[in-house]
Amino acid sequence: MSQHDTSEETLTHDRTRLQEPHLFKVVLLNDDFTPMDFVVDVLMRFFRKTLDEATQIMLNVHHRGVGVCGVYTREIAETKVLQVNQHARQNQHPLQCRMERN
Predict the structure, then answer these.
(1) At what angle do helices 36-47 and 74-90 cross, to 10 degrees?
(2) Distance CA 96, CA 93 (A)
(3) pTM for this prediction
């Protein structure tokens, strides 16, 4: 058998591209009633921010009307929004948390 007589296998590769999941910003909205220390506690508790990071985000909420808590996949963002809003209501604060497509 010569080299030209050997059978060759043709390999095909699927060119399926996996798309990165869409990311969502979780943000807190300013209000005139929720205490600043409560907002800092929320940021540390639900977003694992340090005291300094939480204070900076809280100040953004206070001065700019909105502060970004983090960027997550849809499911994680939805869970965080639900947790924060539930926690705020349980503590009788009008703090609002929402998600926005990044």
Answers:
(1) 140
(2) 9
(3) 0.81
